[in-house]
Batch of 2 targets.
Target 1
Amino acid sequence: MSRAGWIVLALALVALPWVAGEYYVNLSSQILIAAIFAASLNLLVGYGGLPSLGHASYLGMAAYVSAWLSLKFGLEHWITAPAALAATTLMACVFGWIALRATGLGFLMITLALSQVLWGLGYRWVSVTNGDNGLSSLTRPAPFGISLESAIAFYYFALIVTVASIWLMARLVASPFGAGLRGTRDQPRRMAALGYNVWRVRWLTFVYAGFWGAVSGLLYVYYHKYIHPSSLALSSSAEALLGVIAGGAGTLAGPIVGAGVVLILKNYASAYIERWNMLLGFVFLAIILFMPDGLVPGLRRAWTRLRGDKA
Amino acid sequence: MDAIAGGQGVTPALEIDDLCKSFGGLPATNHVSLSVLPGERRLIIGPNGAGKTTLFNQITGDFLPDSGKVRLFGRDITRLAPHQRAQLGIARTYQIITLFPKDTLEHNVALALLGLKPSRWNAFRRLAADTALYEEARRALALVQLEPLAKRSIGEISYGEKRRVEIALALAQRPKLLLLDEPLAGLSRDERAAVKQLIDSIPRATTVVLIEHDMDTALELAEQITVLHYGSVIVEGTRAEVVADPKTREVYLGH
Amino acid sequence: MQFWVIQTLNSLALGGLLFLLSSGFSLIFGLMRIANLTHGALFMLGAYIGVTILKFIPNLWVAALLGGVVVGAFGGLVERFILRRLPGNVLGQVLVTLGISFIIADLCLILWGGDPIPVPTPPALQKPMVIAGVPFPTYRLVVLAIAVVVAIALHFLMERTRLGAMIRAGVDDMQMARAVGIPVSRLFTTVFCLGSALAGAGGILGGPILSAYPGLDADMLPLALIVVILGGVGSLVGAFVGSFIVGFVYTFGIALAPDLAYVILFLPMIFVIAFRPRGLFGRAGA
């Protein structure tokens, strides 16, 4: 995207709360959180070629650790946040090691199984997670004493975190490590013969993706001030994956667009349709059968065709 | 057979010691021993199914042998992973093209160059800004006469050109041991001449081991030849010796 | 003593049900390289369909048979009209089966409502069998017996019939199988139907033990996954052994430490993945 395009986008994002009502500001905050979640998953799926159906684990784990530490021990956010991030990243290290004992479908199944185990734990370990009731009465942090209770304040907070995280992820994608990662996706055997430690590249990416998943989890629990085991469920991971694929895996913007679309759909659809999951299922089918590359590459193609016709 | 291998005190570049590998009871590599001296050009030849690629794969680490040893300049590498062997100076090309089809020729070679640099772990710097790397990549492409195509994507070039890019990737690693798996397969006469010239021009600092199954085309490329049949070494020696040996002709009868 | 007996039988019964569920999953995965995430939903669908059939024909065995056939046919349609349009697109196939599982789950919610529907044990089997003075819940024994019979039948199918030979060839080496003229498309559809039918029948047979309830699919799918991870993909023996290991670990886990039952399930799975990534009986290259 051109310089001008970026400036317009930046202005739009910053100006949003001044032109939109509270409902839309809140929706935008949710989209930002989903964007980080989807972008981190995309590192694995799109750039790493490692399809994971267990990404919700990192969102959920960070959310629950943060919630539990503050409810149980009354700790402040400046302690619970790093603790949650550390715990979740550690979990990503372990889960990554386990899952990368396989590749392709084996990897997918293991990430799914691990995530389901965590979900089951979320429901059953009632003494810690409060089971089906979830953990509530949570608070938002107040960085530098600034309250994030208002929609606008939280939006800007989320915006700053999102911009930082996407920027860092973009740097990784454009870096030598990122090139190596894409190489391991396309020709893992060749990469090994060229001297790359393919397993380590994948594992590091897995952990990094888990870290950003954890960041989105913290934002999530701060926004909702509530966490429920359903956030750890397969449908949560599936929505993220749908967002990534719908938007176009292997591009940076795709998953963000896709996450936004999925979230908006969810918000509007659930007002009219009780059975959101069914709609999600049909959307999955439609996109995979008819638009496998995703929206962003499709739109890009349409855009270049339009420009080509003009020239 | 020992015309060159007489070497007192010269550590072989590649030493294979009683290597065995079976797949479900079928011996693909059957007590193979061979020794390649530094700077040598060795051809491993044999009919299809003789176990040549399997042997290669054990040298590169894609397969682990059931028993026996592989040594690189005296160092036991039998159990090392492929990427570790690459770091020690082994490079290879593949029978099937294994390039990165959506990337430019330049980027393909750049990846090969990066593989041996510690900066491949850098997750922050912009790779595209590394002009020195891409210049080095273009120089590597120049070695195979493909520099003009540097910015084209792999998908756009011909099969013969892809084969040359494969060799460029391997040469970019400045290997001590270069393994070429059927580098001439599927090439036209002109392309074959170009690749042969390329192989001839490789400096002696790199030891070259080639696999081919077509005797006529490959003979000129090597000084020492090892003939494999059903996973075993049946003839070994200089060109003249191997061609004269009745066992060789037996193996190729009706091929 | 009573406790151990009951829990052991529960474990065996659950293991039997899991075998019905995961044998199909394992075959489909092994042959078609498709991780059929619809499988849990097919199990649940079978349970619900069975419930409806029972309203008209109050015979559990008939319901299981008919239910299996219906779910099997549904599976065949899914394979024929959806999965077949995505050859080689591994991720696409997985996501599509996931999408279908969501659709089925909500469909069941619409058609049968949100309350769990209990399935009555067949009257003939309601009285416990008393062996050596210890009462055994009869139905669970019967489920176990059915699973064993099915296992033997599947083994016979795989080892002694032409269909089985074709399946085994396909699992071993798809390209070779095609090359020797095995009708791969028809084989795929057949196996998918078979796997789905087994899952569906398992769902209704499990009715008296588990009931039919929303979320049954989400409860069963991870268990099937763990069975296949443990036992190895494409291996019936693996699915058999894995099913009973999971049956025992899960049942005793829930009975002894309900909070942590899922974690306890975790452990054998991790062990196997760490030391034998292709499962206890799987072939390399899954």
Note: The two ends of chain A are 19 Å apart (CA to CA).
Target 2
Amino acid sequence: MIKTFLKRQNAVLWIIAVASIALPLLTDNRYYQDIIIMTFLWTGLAASWNLYSGYCARLSIGHAAFLGIGAYAAALLYTNYGISPWVGMIAGGLLAGLVALVIGGSTLRLKGTFFVLATIAFAKIAETFAITAKWITGGSLGVLIPYAPGFINMTWQSKIPYAVLAWVYMLAILAVCVKVEHSRLGYFLRAVGEDREAAENLGVNASKIMLTAFVMSAVFTAFGGSIMAMYVMYIEPTSLMSMTNSVQFILLAIAGGLGTAFGPLAGAYVLVPLTNLMRGNFPSVSGLHGLLLGLILIAVLLYRSSGILPALKGFFEKRRKGDMG
Amino acid sequence: MMLLRADNITKRFGGVQALDHVSFEIAEGETVGLIGPNGAGKTTLFNCINGTLPIDSGRLYFCGNDVTGRKSYQMTALGICRSYQVVKPFRRMTVLQNATVGAFCREKSRKAAENTALEALRTVGLYEKRDEQGAVLNLGESKRLEIAKALSTRPKLLLLDEVMAGLLPAEVKAMSAIIKGINRAGVTVILIEHNMEAVMTLSDRIIVLNFGKKLAEGTAADIAADKAVIDAYLGTEEEENHAYN
């Protein structure tokens, strides 16, 4: 059993990911359904972030900007021009990809810390733009998305269709990540992340590889942003593109396991429900979920800096060795 | 036709003239030793040949084409690849994955790349270690992994930077056999080496660098008898005795 788990670790994780669609169907409680939807969504988002930052070890603390681009594209095109959010989602992805090409291209030469600072600045610029460019974005008041249920409007009365949508999004991103991990791109990304000079000596065009992954990561994040906007039905720049949201990507991926396809899933499945339940059940203690997140991250970094998923794997490997010995 | 022709390669780091109009030619199929005292510019020359460092002046020709100014990944695609003196394994990847990165230089599919990588691992005797993490290898194994990674890119010209440094005598012998095997398989080799016995037996020709200049060039016997080389690098017995007294 344990041996097969090890051998088919990805298979087990796939089963968990696929089977989770049963969860929102098992409960009528809209509060729990909301938590499940957010868990799916954040798994996909953290996996998108991981595709660049996790594999090639360059921390972006600016992904909330791409989330915002996707959210605004879908919300504004739909609210102002009646364009289907499905089209808006594609538009948001394209715009995010274009922006990523510029931001990624101009930050390629920046080393570790300076890249991190550049991404923080980028998110801040995007947020400020959304607040000040009132004629486009509606400013700090945000955008209230009209409620008109229907598939074409990506709007439903029940939460189940949203859950299915978020679940499909999550599975699609995970599938891409697994595919990348076993491909030339994935090998090159990890090599560049470990030692850029050594990778280039082996024929890796590091700039091209990094840019490719950065654009992919941004596009997938924007898709998630569009879904999030249509689900919440209201977007507002300061919370959407806040540092808290940018950090959320990193927390989930690091806690789960950086640079592994299913790490973000492990991180999001544990942390998103936990923090939401904390916030829901102890509303009087404000910031409790933040404190908890911080504590969990510290514990993960102290005990097993590679994350929850590698820690589980290590645990089962030890058990297996015990079995044989 | 010469495989590699370096024409007056010059490289300066601030006030230091690291390479001073160095010219030489490498024929296809040769094994050439590159020796010289510490700081002579040997590794810098490697960095300039494989495109890690841009050269200040001079030209570089590979297979008859001017390749001056190409970046290192382009040089690797052309067929020049190096190993590092300070080993650079990808620590969180397995030995096989390490070599597969190199193999992806020419192969698109993972299956094909892994086959190339496995072949390279067999050549250097790391096949049994293929599933170990890059981080757990000892120095001798790391040096061999360096060669396997470079070999996986299917180079025409392999630059080996002190692959014997720090190895035990038995390991040096095994390494010499590996290098001889690679050369016999048709790969031209330039090796930087301080182990005189190994470099003298392996090399068809030897180039001596001193203070960034080419001091001498010739067969092992020529070099061992060259007055200038003895003064600058090899030293004489009397001198050694003198030093001890």
Note: Chain A touches chain B at residues 182-184, 187-188, 190-191, 194-195, 197-206, 259 (CB under 8 Å).
